[in-house]
Design goal:
Elements lengths: L2 E9 L5 H14 L4 H23 L5 E8 L3 E8 L27 H8 L2 E6 L5 E8 L10
Antiparallel strand pairs: 1-2, 2-3, 3-5, 4-5
Helix pairs in contact: 1-2, 2-3
Length: 147
């Protein structure tokens, strides 16, 4: 069963992240997302939006549009912005052998997005900006439906 995509557009402001997280949480809950799936989607969107705000817009005004849809077995989150073009899928994985206290700050956002999703894809937005697609299966192999 397909659930119509819901959309939210927010200003590129860290103070708006809670609104983005709540929107994703409510959209996924409407489609009966298991808690692990819901938590993963919220984490991935939070990281992606934070990266767009902090590293894309660098404090300049802007916007982020978040769309959440469900195709029956997968949640598909599409995030668009008009920040400078940046392909997060080209970022290398961090060296996880370095102890966290010795690691320089940053560099974990894309890693966390990858860990929280089954598929992460990017394309430049026509006219400038970015389109990021985050896909998460409703259930992972280790997860079971509630009885």
């Amino acid at each position: 069963m397909a659930v119509a995509e819901r959309k939210l557009r927010i200003d590129a402001d860290l103070d708006r992240l809670a609104e983005a997280r709540q929107f994703v949480r409510e959209a996924a809950a409407t489609a009966d997302a298991p808690i692990a799936c819901l938590d993963d989607l919220v984490q991935a969107v939070d990281e992606a939006a934070t990266n767009a705000i902090v590293h894309g817009y660098h404090g300049s005004p802007g916007w982020i549009e978040i769309g959440v849809g469900f195709d029956g077995s997968r949640f598909i989150v599409t995030m668009e912005d008009d920040a400078p073009v940046f392909d997060p899928t080209s970022r290398p994985e961090p060296d996880l052998d370095i102890a966290p206290e010795r690691r320089t700050p940053g560099g974990m956002g894309v890693h966390l997005m990858r860990a929280a999703t089954d598929e992460l894809s990017w394309q430049p937005r026509p006219g400038g900006g970015n389109i990021l697609k985050l896909i998460r299966a409703r259930l992972q192999p280790q997860e079971e439906e509630p009885r």
